[in-house]
Amino acid sequence: MYRVGEKEIEAFSRALLSRDFFKINSAGREVQNFEEEWKQMTGAKYALTMTSGFAALTSALIGMGVGPGDEVIVPGYTYIASALAVTAVGAIPVIAEVDETLTLDVKDVEKKISKHTKAVMPVYIQGFPADLDGLLSLSKKYGFKIIEDACQADGGQYHGKYLGTIGDAGAYSFNYFKIITSGEGGALVTNDRAIYERALIYHDASAVAFFGDQLNGIEQPLFGGTEFRVSDLTGAILREQLKRMPGILSDLRNNRNKLSDKFFYGSSVIKVGDIRVTQAPSHDIEGDCGTTLPLRFETASDCRAFCERAAAHGVGLTVPIDTGKHVYTNWTQIMEKRGAYHPAMDPFLMEANKDLQHNYTPDMCPRTLDLLSRTAYVMISPEWTDKDMEFIADAMK
Predict the structure, then answer these.
(1) Crossing angle, helix 232-264 and helix 386-396, to 10 degrees?
(2) CA end-to-end distance (rounded Å), the chain
(3) Which of 17, 121, 209, 219 is the most buried (most CB within 10 A)?
(4) Across-strand partners of 123?
């Protein structure tokens, strides 16, 4: 969480004291207004607010018709929820390498495309944009859908377009650790009417037919789904957070750029003692959310030595190989192929999936593991002053 205050308290109180804060209401209509405001900002035709980024990913996959017999390619560096959303719909996650930017490697994606590939899921980890031009080209060539996991990239862009709106559908997260937050929450966007209708039905199957006019104009048949609906208490907070988002992103990007200049002197490489440090590349540095300054080292031991020296001078860095469930080797449920509690519901045991690509091994993405072990993150604060950044840059030097 970056910024929260009286405006969110006032909005929450407004919704609460209305005594009419179910999603469909005749009072503030906070969720529906947030969806309109999110669409207006991103330019997407359709938006649905949900309980989490996982809910949005799962609903988007359902909207795309992904299920048993299908493969979805995901990067080996992302939170486990990306892969679990795939198993939640009965499909198989195929794990691919990341490139130098720590986002999905287009070349490895093409190697892992099969006749079963239904979708590819680029993930904008730390707000880093992926090579969407490359993925869109592959999508046209092979005919798969693109589902963007923008859960760590609220408000991020790629060549002037909002992340999440470039593929067939996009998912965002608003939990406590994201750029804007309602504690928990998420959203789905798409320009595809069929994806939207199926996602609408799936994400609120027990209520969408009974409250308001949500099914007006819906042509998809009703089917059983789940309940990812949020209340107007969430919507009210998100509307205020959305107002803060441009300032948060501007300050994050400015501080990332300033720190980079103070440390690298405007170059992309610096020598600190006997250690060579490079700023990791980006597919769009201007669209990058600015949450992180990624440092790249020649060896894992150099990375560890640098982090130890920085810590001794009062600056803590994060090495992404250490981030638990963000690294595929730690996806216990996936690596051990337990995709559901009941065997009959487990996609790894389904007849339709028996010939798909799920022979996972800990060393199947060696480049990903190498890059993660040779990278260190400086986590950026939008509240830093120039004095703060001088201290951090000097301490790292």
Answers:
(1) 50
(2) 29
(3) 121
(4) 149
DSSP class of residue 281 equals P
- Three-state DSSP at 204 gives strand
Domain that holds residue 156: 6-241
Split at pLDDT 50, 70, 90, the class of 221 is very high
Give the pLDDT score at 266: 82
User: In this structure, is residue 317 part of a structural domain?
Assistant: no
Q: How far apart are CA 261 and CA 255, in angstroms?
A: 10
Distance in angstroms (rounded) separating the CA atoms of residues 395 and 301: 19
Run of H or E residues at 188 = strand 186-190
- On whether residue 384 sits in a domain, the answer given is no
Half-sphere exposure of 144 (CA within 13 A, CB side): 28
Residue 196 lies in a domain: yes
SS3 349: helix
Distance of CA 258 to the CA centre of its chain: 25
| Average of per-residue pLDDT across 331-347 | 97
pLDDT of residue 290: 98
The answer to whether residue 209 scores a pLDDT higher than 90 is no
- Nearest C-alpha neighbor of 60 from the set 201, 185, 175, 154: 201
- 182 lies in some domain: yes
Check if the beta carbon of residue 146 is closer than 8 Å to that of residue 158: no
Segment holding 377, helix H or strand E: strand 375-379
Assign 3-state DSSP to the chain and report helix, strand, coil percentages, each to 5: 40, 15, 40
Tell me, what's the pLDDT at 69?
98
As given in the structure block, the two tokens for residue 7 are: 């405006």
Q: Which residue type is seen at 267?
A: S
- % residues pLDDT > 70 (the chain): 100
- Distance in angstroms (rounded) separating the CA atoms of residues 139 and 110: 10
CATH of residue 116: 3.40.640.10
